[in-house]
Design brief:
seven-stranded mixed β-sheet, four-stranded parallel β-sheet, globular, alpha/beta
Length: 360
């Protein structure tokens, strides 16, 4: 069952509503129409999810959405707990125990409602890559596509606005705008706080002529978590984890030396350092696994020694793509990279610039 269906903000007991603004919601059709940028989105969905943990195999235990119009005014909100069919993880953070979640709907039972509230809107979240990734994986498990094409991270927006924040925590952003948090780590109140802080940020950006840091969202076309979800013979079985947290995944070191930068039009070579930025249509860890199995080194950051950066949005304002540009490192999309993974040159065929030519 849903604890909260779509409601106007003043209908939710115990959660303060956002004050309405008198200005109408305008979908600008020309430059500066109504004093509002013509290229800004026409609607937003401020989202927060609570989860069993931070890994790719973790599950959502609650979700909330505040729908906003083009100028950040609240239209309605929605909240639901979600039964993850497993250990709920850090209950001391989100407060959702196994007993509380036992009667909650499965994600597949709320997927349609959530999709309806996100459809055609920009997904807004604090550290949006996390919320988007968790939601995208849940939809991949249900074999449905999530109708979101762009997301906006309020951390990135606060950096664009150069807000004088001591750090990039939600509580700091809220304090900057005088927003009072009432139930931290409750998805509905976190979404409410973020919506209330996002509206003045949006107006700050609009009146300052700041481009919104929108990123393209790619739905997952291939995802597998059979081992992680504890499925055996088609039946789900719970897996005991200490406090619901998983240790960080560690890959074995790449056994091959770095042959240097990838030359466009050529082959990938074992030992090349590859960094992946942004969304991928294949689940990130599956893509990384395939690259590792082919003998490539997956790098978490970009340096002068990086051979190649994989990004489906080469014009995105991300640290990896920006650094790749500054170093002159080639940037390639996922489809081209996946194609090249089929035929990776052996390490012994490569000659490092520091090595003498082979004579054998």
């Amino acid at each position: 069952m849903l604890e909260d269906q779509t409601a106007r903000p003043d209908e939710e007991a115990g959660v303060p509503h956002l004050p309405a603004q008198s200005s109408p919601a305008l979908h600008a059709t020309g430059p500066g129409a109504g004093g509002w940028p013509a290229n800004y989105p026409t609607g937003y969905a401020v989202v927060d999810v609570e989860t069993t943990g931070l890994r790719r195999d973790d599950r959502i235990v609650s979700a909330a959405v505040y729908r906003l119009d083009s100028r950040g005014n609240v239209e309605d909100h929605w909240y639901t707990p979600v039964n993850p069919l497993r250990d709920p993880g850090p209950t001391w953070i989100h407060g959702l125990t196994t007993e509380v979640l036992s009667g909650a709907p499965l994600f597949e039972e709320v997927a349609e409602d959530l999709a309806e509230r996100l459809d055609g809107r920009v997904l807004v979240a604090h550290n949006a890559v996390f919320d988007w990734s968790m939601i995208a994986r849940e939809y991949a498990r249900t074999r449905h596509e999530l109708p979101v094409r762009h997301r906006l991270c309020t951390i990135a927006l606060s950096k664009e606005l150069r807000l004088p924040l001591p750090n990039h925590k939600l509580e700091s952003l809220a304090a900057h705008y005088g927003v009072v948090q009432q139930r931290a780590h409750h998805a509905l109140d976190d979404a409410r706080v973020l919506a209330e802080a996002f509206r003045p940020s949006l107006h700050h950006a609009a009146h300052g002529g700041v481009s919104l840091p929108l990123l393209t969202c790619l739905p997952l076309t291939e995802f597998s978590d059979d081992a992680a979800s504890g499925r055996s013979g088609g039946a789900a079985r719970p897996r005991p984890y200490a406090y619901g947290w998983r240790p960080s995944r560690k890959r074995s070191p790449c056994p091959y030396p770095n042959p240097g930068r990838y030359e466009p039009g050529g082959r990938l070579t074992q030992g090349m350092r590859v960094a992946i930025s942004g969304d991928t249509s294949v689940d990130r860890e599956l893509l990384e696994d395939r690259a590792t199995e082919a003998g490539l080194h997956i790098a978490g950051s970009v340096s002068r020694r990086t051979s190649l950066v994989v990004s489906n949005d080469p014009h995105a304002i991300t640290s990896k793509v920006s650094r790749a540009r500054s170093f002159g490192t080639p940037v390639m999309d996922e489809a081209a990279f996946t194609h090249l993974l089929r035929d990776v040159a052996p390490a012994q065929d490569a000659v490092s610039p520091q090595d003498p030519p082979r004579t054998d």
